[in-house]
Amino acid sequence: MTGNSPATLGRRQVLNLASGGLAAIVAAATSGRSVFAAQPQIVVYKSPECGCCGLWSAELRRKGFGVRVIELENIAPIKRQARVPDNLETCHTAFIDGYAVEGHVPVDAIDKLLADRPDVIGIAVPGMPAGSPGMPSDQREPFDVYAYAADGRQTMFMSLR
Q1: Helix (H) or strand (E) holding 114
Q2: Which of 42, 70, 140, 147 falls between 20 and 30 A from 52, CA-CA?
Q3: Which residues contact 19 (CB under 8 A, 6 or more apart)?
Q4: Radius of gyration of the chain (CA)
Q5: What does CATH list as the number for 37-160?
Q6: In sequence order, what are the beta bridge partners of 102?
Q7: How many CB atoms lie under 10 A from the CB of residue 84?
Q8: How far apart are CA 106 and CA 145, in angstroms?
Q9: What SS3 state is found at 42?
Q10: Are the CB atoms for 64 and 124 separated by under 8 Å?
Q11: pTM of the prediction?
């Protein structure tokens, strides 16, 4: 056998490979994500000028989500596609595993959405609360995450105080 087959790998190469795999498992475990469960990718639509949307996307990446960002000059058609109610619209709209996510929604709320799989179109954080993901601030403002359904119902999904 030749090349990098297991029979020709030296002890040091085997240890390097093993430590690399261990590092990947530790990184996944400390991100709060399951080591073995694949997370669905979240697709974020934002304006090229919006910096807070980029910060929110970076927070999702740090927490283990695969993030694809699409910059558009006009994201109003995306918000219509996501059927975001006017009172819940904010600066960016995202889609994950069949759900819409509007605004500065925290990872805990996205995790709950994916785990509980409620009969809703999506979840949203109206406004741009100080201290929410993507909105750094010394003073964290309390805020609520709302779920919205196809029949127009809006319910509190999670409260962050």
Answers
A1: helix 107-116
A2: 147
A3: none
A4: 20
A5: 3.40.30.10
A6: 93, 124
A7: 23
A8: 9
A9: strand
A10: no
A11: 0.76
